[in-house]
Structure prediction request, 399 residues.
Amino acid sequence: MSKFDLKKAHFATLCIHGSGGVDQSTGALSIPIYQSSTFAFKNAKHGADIFSGEQEGYVYTRIGNPTQSAFEKEMAFLEGGEAALAFGSGMAAISSTIFSLCRSGDNFVSSNTLYGGTHSLFVDTLPRLEIEAREVDTTNLSEIEEAIDEKTRCLYIETPANPTLMISDLAACAKIARKHKIPLIVDNTFSTPYFQRPLELGADIVIHSATKYIGGHGDTVAGVAIGGKEFIDDLRGNFLRDLGGIISPLNAWLLVRGLKTLPVRMEQHQRNALKIAKFLQFHPKVDYVWYPGLASHPQHEIGKQQMSGYGGMVSFEIKGGRKAGEKLMNSIKIFTLAVSLGDVDSLIEHPASMTHSTYSSEELVKVGITDGLVRLSVGLEDVHDLIDDLSQALKAIKI
Ligand SMILES: *Cc1c(COP(=O)(O)O)cnc(C)c1O
Prediction:
């Protein structure tokens, strides 16, 4: 068999072949799980050469592992970046990236609507190290401009944002970042590279919680950062090696397998989500539906320009607030009451008391995470069953 040029491959082909294909030493179709902590050197010089960087090779799984490399290679292809680095969680990828760019006394500007753990890192933990996150409404470009000063080291955007699905204009954010000579970091967890490729829109670094759609099956916690080779080398050489937030070989393998079906999963997540958004939109017990694919979404037009699809997350405001939401979540049968997202199983949760309980009550009001906001991660079950389930659970609410 001759070798196929992956540079010419389309997205779905890369999802299946981008990790390197058949194992050359055994012929195994599926990449082996290199469940080894350490790697033997051929002789003393070989070991010294790998340590000095004169020869490529593996040393120790905290620094790198072949199964991990296969996943990283594939993520770099899919996001269109030079290199990628896997981590043991999305939070490890986010914290290591910020540590690599900011020192004590520095600040950075970020979206104010973020995954709850990211918000907590930014406003509770980083200030202990004298790093200041300036959270602003990044759908409003002038707020970004106003927050940047000479100590600002990066711009951090989550779009669509968790859980309100607000969309920031990535090309415009990239322009601001370039003007101030700071890198633009984008958390692309909700869209995946299948629907949105921030590097092509001018971003410098892309981050994922690979726990979500990349893995796709609710069985792995992992993260990944993608960017230029120099940045990724520094991240690996200093922040992964020294802070130790590594991925296990088994989890890297699960992600390589998850990626093989990413395009078909994302298409179906989106198809189901749009039908559910439309069902909820006109339901008498629902006040408002947040889904970027609906024309009523405030940034629908920007979404249309920068995303090729709108994904599987739907949030909605239920009439009757917290009490009605609790009744809904206690009455639902097919959706699982659980945090996390992007799984084949449909999930339902209440951001204000669960994923976003790291926000103070004032902050929740400010970013629009109300007591009546319910978040759905629409899975791959038959959509008729999902709609019937939501319908019966909404019926159980007496207002
Ligand atoms: C879940 C999530 C994270 C954190 O990732 P973990 O894998 O849970 O550490 C970061 N960003 C977004 C948008 C998320 O949904």
